[in-house]
Design brief:
globular; binds NADP nicotinamide-adenine-dinucleotide phosphate; 16 strands; single chain; Rossmann fold; alpha/beta
């Protein structure tokens, strides 16, 4: 029997409380594959969840209880397949997603719904490959939420806040490929990177106030800060297409106010911002990550064309995972990858 090494988050705490446990690897069920995880990422949500963020609402989907294993994406190799899995075979090199639920991807072996796994035979390292599935899926949701598609993007003026982060960098790469004109909001040291990834203009948030941006944008994406939501919405032009944010207070409101009052707060916060968007005739969305097979298909195609990438900022073994979480907490550069 194969052993698996798992990174458990013991309880909500700051600094994070992590522990490596070894046990027998699970067996894949019907429609599942067992993946030998070669690399898995620590995304900002993992850090927050390790501190208890979202637990009240996530308990409803089995993800609010501690101890728990975090992590939503991986690169690895198929170790075994369960019944009714036809397109995957032992030894295939793969990447994929683990939904937010009872168990995460921070494990050396993980059973995954075969629909959330894609094969990859390119030259990208496991570390680099693992950084993509979660961020790419979320960016896809955000772009669609803001009404931006491959077919309508050409010539659109798009404002991206948090352009230098993981979501921001992927959105720059996609929007540039689709012919949109992106104004990237970022800090001074990140301007060169955003330009390199295709930003048409840079707004240095350390030197320039957001409310001095022209109100000319067809669409907006907020990957940075909920406090800036109102200002960003005011920068859309009249007749704009849409706007989406990943940094909304959805989970935080439930944490702070409980399920009923939190739900009411969410309704109120959402309605207020949606009304501001509606003044510009723009649609308004809060993005909540959800595994999507279409996103994985699209990522697979773009990887085959060598068209998307994120930079790995640090790698760490499970034993060094605390350092990896600290890197995310300190907003260190690049994505953070665990090597089980
Ligand atoms: N709702 C969901 O389902 C979902 C899914 C994925 C991610 N998220 C959230 O979306 C956000 C972006 O994710 P990510 O992985 O791209 O994060 P990231 O890599 O940490 O990038 C965020 C970027 O935002 C900028 N920033 C940070 N704090 C800021 C502030 N106070 N004001 C203005 N800009 C600030 C920083 O760039 P500069 O310093 O260069 O400006 C940073 O690089 C995170 O908060 C993450 O938790 C939500």
């Amino acid at each position: 029997m194969t052993d698996t090494s798992e990174l458990w988050c013991r309880e909500p705490a700051d600094p994070v409380e992590l522990e490596v446990r070894v046990g027998p690897a699970p067996s894949p069920g019907d429609g599942e594959a067992l993946v030998r995880v070669m690399a898995t990422t620590v995304n900002p949500i993992d850090l927050r969840r390790a501190k208890g963020y979202g637990r009240r609402f996530l308990r409803l989907v089995g993800a609010g209880k501690y101890p728990q294993i975090l992590g939503n994406d991986f690169a690895g190799v198929i170790a075994a397949v369960g019944a009714n899995v036809r397109d995957l075979h032992s030894g295939d090199r793969v990447f994929g997603l683990v939904p937010t639920g009872k168990g995460g991807a921070h494990s050396s072996y993980v059973c995954v719904d075969a629909r959330l796994i894609r094969c990859y035979d390119g030259a990208m390292t496991d570390e680099a490959l693992a950084t993509l599935p979660y961020c790419f899926t979320t960016v896809g949701q955000a772009l669609r939420g803001a009404g931006i598609t491959k077919s309508n993007a050409k010539g659109l003026q798009v404002l991206v806040h948090g352009a230098s982060g993981g979501l921001g960098q992927l959105s720059l790469q996609l929007l540039n490929r689709w012919g949109a004109l992106v104004t990237a909001v970022c800090s001074t040291p990140d301007a060169a990177l955003c330009r390199e990834l295709g930003a048409a203009a840079i707004w240095d948030r350390r030197r320039q106030k957001l409310d001095a941006l022209p109100a000319c944008f067809d669409a907006g994406l907020n990957f940075a800060n909920w406090q800036d939501e109102e200002i960003l919405l005011s920068r859309l032009r009249k007749g704009a297409l849409g706007y989406a944010t990943t940094v909304h207070p959805f989970l935080g409101n439930f944490d702070r106010f409980g399920l009923i009052r939190g739900g009411w707060r969410n309704y109120r916060d959402f309605a207020r911002m949606r009304a501001l968007a509606a003044e510009k005739t723009a649609t308004y969305r809060w993005v909540i990550f959800r595994p999507q097979t279409e996103a994985l298909d699209e990522l697979q195609q773009l990887l085959a064309a060598d068209a998307v990438k994120l930079t790995v900022g640090m790698t760490a073994s499970f034993a060094e995972a605390r350092r990896a979480f600290e890197h995310v907490a300190n907003s260190g550069t690049g994505r953070v990858v665990l090597l089980p």
